[in-house]
Amino acid sequence: MKVTHQSNLCHSCHLATSCFNISFESPHFSHLSQIIQKSIIVKKNEAVYYQQEKFRGLFTVKQGGVKTYLVSETGQQVVTGFYLPGEILGFDAVYSEHYIANAVSLTSSEICWISFADLLKLASENQTIQRELFKLFSYRLQSNHQKFHLNSEQKVAAFLLDYASRILKQTTSENDFYLLPTQQDIASYLNLTPETVSRTLHRFIDQEIFQSSQAKRIENLNCQKLREILER
Amino acid sequence: MKVTHQSNLCHSCHLATSCFNISFESPHFSHLSQIIQKSIIVKKNEAVYYQQEKFRGLFTVKQGGVKTYLVSETGQQVVTGFYLPGEILGFDAVYSEHYIANAVSLTSSEICWISFADLLKLASENQTIQRELFKLFSYRLQSNHQKFHLNSEQKVAAFLLDYASRILKQTTSENDFYLLPTQQDIASYLNLTPETVSRTLHRFIDQEIFQSSQAKRIENLNCQKLREILER
DNA sequence: CGATCTGTTGAACATAATCAAACTGCGTGG
DNA sequence: CCACGCAGTTTGATTATGTTCAACAGATCG
Fold first, then answer.
1. How many domains does chain B have?
2. Which residues, in sequence order, are CB contacts of A79 under 8 Å at separation 6+?
3. Which domain holds residue A218?
4. What's the predicted TM-score (pTM) here?
5. Same domain, yes or no: A123 and A169
6. Residue from B70, B129, B141, B228 to probe the interface with A (highest A Cβ count within 10 Å)
7. pLDDT digit string (tens) for B17-74?
């Protein structure tokens, strides 16, 4: 992990308004950007933090991508989430003050460190930031129940739609992008086997829902068709 | 919904320290109890709040129990959670400022209302309460991924263990209690069919994991055996 | 350039869903 | 107070979806 110091990390970041949903022009922005003063380069398969490690703050993805996964007592791994540029990870560690999952980089990534103590201090001094922070926590409480009661085809469709909408922050199109996680990661995340994910993706190609000229590449994704699959 | 006013709702509540995990003796307790000044009686099947209704604060269960459920565009209902005495609901509405799910009483319940605006104000003035509140949000982020990758027997076992540990706050034993939700509710919550839940519970009785002298009654629950099922 | 990780494909199998029918118990109204 | 109706539960037979197992192909990386 290589540490980089920059006086104005957020001001030079094209995702500046994304992490906390506070605009560049807002008077609150400069307060927030002051507590984000350090970024680290995390290479592929290197950890941002480890399960059970003591909480030492939140992290936000500036470039690249991160997956979180749990390891049970029996040694089984379950992928619990993917984090793309502009997204914050570590919220779930606030309760126990230890990280709940392992966080590992899916590619070489640039990760910004956020002191939670500083953030709390800032929040107690600034009502807008406090409210925005509670909203960020609240936002994470929403999802999850959807992907639970879907069949395998719908799970993969929902995953692609979600991923496409999130990757949109950094690229210009939600129809052409690279998948950072492997099919195994996706399978674990959706509670499916890699075989089922592979077969489902190939069925989508057969149905012309997307093309793929190379591994992990999604081209010309037809989001409307995916939404129709979800409505069945 | 019948509204009751009490000057010291929390001081007379045996769950006082449960909702916010702040002890009765703490100097912060009196601050918190000041913003909880009103409780309502919600009869069985009556709503505490409705999906999409504008956010008007958090609620905590003083007596009884509540279920939350989503209704999809296609009219399908999915139970997303159960709330027992001492537990707070409504956190997920903070983000969009609208309730995400319907919250309906499982039996005649007494529900305390918590002004979120007052709570935010209190949090910005009081570091301990602010931190405790963030912890409450964070706590809710943990679960969910477990029940996803279990088989039907393990899901029901995990549900019983969780329910037993939570009911323990109000009774003396985690081995004898009444289930507030119906088997249909439990099935929906676990993403199983009512048939599967019924068969699994009867298999547990056959295996002497618990007894049941009447409907919805769990007696002499063997938590150790349930944990063994989860470790398979 | 071999070794290892990732993805593909097919066949057999298992788990839980589905469908159907009957039963129980609870609350309601006659 | 009993009869009725209905929601919730039980039980069995059949079926479908996704898993498992196995073998191989392709990609990636030191």
1. 2
2. A67, A68, A69, A181, A185, A186, A188, A189
3. 145-230
4. 0.91
5. no
6. B141
7. 788 877 777 888 888 888 887 899 999 999 999 999 999 999 999 999 999 999 988 7
